[in-house]
Specification:
The complex is a heterodimer of chains A (about 425) and B (about 110). Chain A has two domains: about 30-140 and about 290-430, FAD/NAD(P)-binding domain (3-Layer(bba) Sandwich); about 150-290, FAD/NAD(P)-binding domain. Chain A is about 30% helix and about 25% strand. Chain A is built from 13 helices and 26 strands. Chain A has helices at about 10-20, 20-25, 30-35, 50-60, 80-85, 100-105, 155-160, 170-180, 200-215, 235-245, 295, 340-355, 410-430; strands at about 40-45, 65-70, 75, 95, 110, 115-120, 125, 130-135, 135-140, 145, 185-190, 220-225, 250-255, 260-265, 270-275, 275-280, 280-285, 290, 305-310, 315, 320-325, 330, 365-375, 380-390, 390-395, 400. A five-stranded parallel beta sheet of chain A has the order 5-2-1-9-21, with helices on one face. In chain A, strand 15 (about 270-275) and strand 16 (about 275-280) form a beta hairpin. With about 110 residues, chain B is mostly helical. Chain B has one domain (about 35-110): Cytochrome Bc1 Complex, Chain D, domain 2 (Orthogonal Bundle), CATH 1.10.760.10. Helix content of chain B is about 50%, strand content about 0%. Chain B contains six helices and no strands. Classes of the chains: A alpha/beta (about 425), B mainly alpha (about 110). At the A-B interface, helix 1, helix 4, helix 12, strand 23 and strand 24 of A face helix 1, helix 2, helix 3 and helix 5 of B.
């Protein structure tokens, strides 16, 4: 499955000379659908990937009719949900609706869930029983959790006592309420998942912003991060920030030093690691992840639990005519993030517009930026620019990278301002 | 799979080669948009806003001329102009790609 075949200069020239590019259109799904008179695209999932793809399809080619299937009338963004835990934003601040996509972009937004996909017929069945026909389908279902990965854990327990808060909304509120109810001097245990997972810096930004809240309101409290991994995103920068802003408050335990959890007891609020037991007043366990349910039901996943795609158009390599974007896709070197999903949604939209016109898509260009707030006026970032090579989607060497270590206060403050500027713009770019 | 990827790559490269920057110098003034320039430029909107129209405190691109955007990106790329994150992004594009991005957004400007 590993894509390592290099394109040779000779093969490339041969294709160029024979004008084989047009002929190779057949590679992108079924031509009968591509050249048909109707142009119906259905998008499953109204998060950063799906909503952006739907909007950009309409923007790039208003002759395409777009239907967006999303069960939630109000979507809470995971980005900035940690700011809510810190008390720096409200749930209302991270709420998005589909009114502009519906009214301004004339997208048929249906508040329902997709329950089945018939790739051969080109249909999507909804929970209500409604059946939608498509010429191209975009599946952007986000993540689902592997509930059986940690003995003692369950979805029911997550909904009542051990929140993951990794799909924003009721989960965020549950965790926030627990933090508010906790005594001064209590212990918050955060258990990040193993790789790959949504938003790699997310659990560590969360530790920072919970610390921000505790330092002000419950300064005797501690945060223990029990991590199955031995390193994490922006590690040096986070640790430097924790030392500066929250000395002695946050302890990170790596996999080899006993961070891996093997059991959870929700009744006694105890997690068991390979090295012993830890009791928490609040336990934020983020389970290991896989592609969202509909990706499995539609047969779009492989043995990894994620969806393999053609990196030019994000078309499934399993089912032609279906494009998978965002966290659920296997997008080479790109992380699973809202920003990456948005970038992929736009690349997929541009490719689908070309394909429905019987043209070859342009070579993709993809991008990611993740800001993490460590404290007020203190943010760090990681950026990446990605291109397609014979090895798939790779990060361009010499570009991207992290906020430098030991950056001065002005730069960290500027990054915090840009984090807000970024959020406002990507929200408007996606739902506005 | 590997053979398919090779063909996809060649197909994309072919479609891009048909529209080299020089051959579409006038495209910025017409309704025809270079497809590769479009895909490159869509990357900008997540931070700078749809069509480069920023609603926050990140500087807008919309309204800037092609030459302004090109020189700004080249200055970020070389490090001549200070930034927090833009130089990390600008280094990800060739000068020809920067030109395509500048032409794409330059279409929105009265000063080409």
């Amino acid at each position: 499955m590993k894509m390592s075949h290099k394109i040779s200069r000779r093969d490339f020239s041969k294709l160029l000379l024979t004008g084989a590019a047009g002929a190779s259109l057949g590679l992108f799904g079924t031509p009968s659908k591509a050249f048909g008179a109707s142009k119906r695209v259905v998008v499953i999932g109204g998060g950063f990937g799906g909503a952006a793809a739907a909007k950009y399809l309409r923007k790039l080619d208003p002759s395409i009719s777009v239907t967006l299937v999303e069960p939630k009338a109000v979507f809470h963004t995971c980005p900035f949900s940690n700011w809510v835990l810190a008390g720096l934003r409200t749930m209302g601040d991270i709420s998005q609706t589909y009114a502009v996509l519906r009214n301004k972009y004339q997208i048929n937004v249906i508040a329902d869930s997709a329950v089945a996909v018939d790739a051969a017929r080109g249909t999507v069945k909804l929970k209500s029983g409604m059946v939608l026909n498509y010429d191209r389908l975009i599946v952007s279902p986000g993540i689902d959790f592997k509930w059986d990965a940690i003995p003692g854990h369950s979805e029911a327990l997550a909904n009542t006592k051990i929140p993951h808060a990794y799909q924003a909304g009721a989960q965020t509120v549950l965790l926030q309420n627990q933090l508010h109810a906790m005594r001064n001097g209590g212990k918050v245990i955060i258990c990040p998942p193993s790789n790959p997972f949504r938003c790699p810096p997310g659990p560590y930004e969360r530790a920072s912003l919970i610390a921000h809240y505790l330092k002000a309101k419950k300064p005797l409290s501690k945060i223990l991060i029990l991590d199955p991994k031995d390193k994490f995103s922006k590690q040096g920068l986070f640790k430097q920030g924790w030392e500066k802003l929250y000395p002695g408050m946050i302890e990170w335990r790596s996999g080899v030093t006993g961070g891996k959890i093997v059991k959870l007891d929700g009744t006694t609020m105890t997690v068991t690691t390979e090295f012993g037991e830890e009791k928490g007043d609040v336990i934020n366990l983020i389970p290991p992840q896989k592609a969202g349910k509909i990706a499995f039901d539609a047969g779009l996943t492989d043995a990894s639990g994620w969806c393999p795609i053609n990196p030019v158009s994000f078309e499934s390599t399993i089912h032609p005519g279906i494009h998978v974007i965002g966290d659920a896709s296997v997008a080479g070197a790109m992380p699973k993030s809202g920003f990456a999903a948005s970038s992929q949604g736009k690349v997929a939209a541009a490719a689908i517009v070309r394909l429905l016109q019987g043209k070859v898509p342009a070579s993709p260009s993809l991008v990611n930026t993740c800001y993490s707030l460590i404290g007020t006026d203190y943010a760090i970032s990681v950026a990446g620019v990605y291109k397609l090579t014979a090895d798939g989607i790779v990060e361009i060497q010499g570009a991207g990278g992290l906020t430098p270590m030991n950056a001065d206060a002005d730069q960290l403050k500027e990054e915090a301002s840009f984090a807000v500027g970024w959020y406002n713009n990507i929200i408007h770019d996606t739902w506005g | 799979m590997a053979a398919n990827l090779r063909l996809w790559l060649a197909a994309c490269a072919f479609s891009a080669a048909a529209l080299l920057p020089g051959s579409v110098a006038s495209a910025a003034n017409t309704s025809e948009v270079n497809p590769r320039g479009l895909v490159l430029s869509l990357s900008c909107s997540s931070c700078h806003g749809t069509d480069g129209k920023s609603v926050g405190l990140i500087p807008p691109i919309n309204g800037r001329s092609t030459s302004y955007i090109e020189s700004a990106m080249l200055a970020f790329k070389s490090g001549a102009r200070y930034s927090t994150v833009m130089s990390r992004h600008a280094k990800g594009y060739t000068d020809a790609e920067i030109r395509l991005i500048a032409e794409y957004f330059g279409r929105f400007s009265r000063n080409k």
